[in-house]
Amino acid sequence: MPDPSLTAFALNCSLRPSSSEETSSTDKMISDLLDALAPHGVTGTVERVADHDVKPGVLSDMGEGDAWPELRRRILAADIFILGTPIWLGQPSSLAKKVMERLDAFLSEMDDRSRMPAAGKVALVAVVGNEDGAHACHALSFQALNDVGFTIPANGGVYWVGEAMTGTDYKELEKMPQGVESNLKMAASNAAHLVRLLKAQPFPGVEE
Fold this sequence. Notes:
This is Multimeric flavodoxin WrbA. It holds the Pfam family FMN_red. The protein has five helices and six strands. With 208 residues, the protein is an alpha/beta fold. It has one domain (6-200): Flavodoxin domain (Rossmann fold, 3-Layer(aba) Sandwich), CATH 3.40.50. β5, α4 and β6 (157-161) form a beta-alpha-beta unit. α1 packs across α5. It is globular and about 55 Å long.
């Protein structure tokens, strides 16, 4: 039986807050990924970045009113971090970029063995859109997440991209495409497996 204590925390970087009357395809993709993680003993929660006053900057705390410190705490409390983003102009959303900019602070927060706060944490990236750009979004996001200490599992990027110049969104599909379902299951399996390996044998860091 898998260890039931593993946790995931996802940030939905949709540009719309949850108070919007429109549902979010990014939310659906994250929900589907959490469903795929559940059989591996992983429970998860989601927050929309647009619901919080995350200040621009590259520090872990940008001062009064900044909502990032609490989101940062929840990222580091989880075993798996999921960054969910829609595609805009072939790129991750501006809120996803803001999240990555705030994570940049990890570069100056290393411990005495040069390990960043995200050492031992696994990251997945979930992307949705009805235009090209999923692989580019994965490349940009994974580079940033790896730079600040997260470990990326094999097949750790999940996505759905609809036909270009049409109005169909992921949330509107009557049935999940087989390729997406297979991708979600593989990402979930690999992420849970990798987390358990890292918990059993943490990164040693380097001697100063």
